[in-house]
Design goal:
Order of helices and strands: HHHHH
Mean pLDDT: 81
Distance between the termini: 83 Å
Number of domains: 2
Strand content: under 5%
Structural class: mainly alpha
Low-confidence stretches: 10-35
Shape: globular
Number of strands: 0
Keywords: Signal
Radius of gyration: 21 Å
Length: about 170
């Protein structure tokens, strides 16, 4: 009887220690960050959205591009707010700038006669990407800047892990 009781106490103590240790690992982050265990799931979601947007935009699909921009905006807003997801401050700020580009791109695609607004510069370099085809040319620079910002956000979410490259497909023939 004493052996069973002792094993039960040891099992409870070991389980508690394991739970506390795993909680510490789940909330660990690089120096200066506020990372959490949901960061990996968020990174996977942002990567999927980025890749989907890249593919439909470079395919010249205006409707799907508008749809993807609409899906991106609330995710970027959540990251920028810093409430739903716990990320580094510079990643939050970059998400706010990226949201502005997503919203402006969607606005211009909804009304091609609208005049583009001046947006603050991004703190990340914009890679050399080909312009978007056809009717998406009006938002080409905005979408390329958005893709650069989102790639920067992924860098912040993934910490030291490499960010997968943009899946820029071959452009359709004019």
């Amino acid at each position: 009887m004493k052996g069973k009781f002792g094993r039960s106490i040891a099992l409870v103590a070991a389980s508690s220690l394991l739970a506390v240790g795993m909680a510490g690992i789940a909330s660990a982050s690089p120096d200066g960050g506020k990372g959490s265990s949901s960061t990996q799931a968020l990174a996977a979601q942002v990567l999927q959205l980025r890749d989907d947007l890249t593919k439909v935009a470079y395919a010249g699909n205006v409707g799907a591009t508008r749809g993807d921009l609409g899906q991106f905006s609330p995710v970027l807003a959540d990251i920028a707010a810093g409430k739903r997801y716990t990320v580094q401050t510079d990643t939050e700020q970059l998400a706010g700038l990226a949201k502005g580009r997503a919203d402006e791109s969607a606005r211009l695609l909804a009304d091609p006669t609208a005049k583009a607004r001046q947006l603050p510069p991004l703190p990340v370099p914009i890679p050399s990407l080909p312009d978007l085809p056809g009717p998406l040319k009006i938002v080409s620079d905005l979408v390329k800047a958005l893709l650069a910002a989102v790639t920067g956000i992924l860098g912040g979410l993934l910490g030291g892990l490499p960010v997968p490259p943009l899946p820029v497909p071959p452009l359709p023939a004019p």
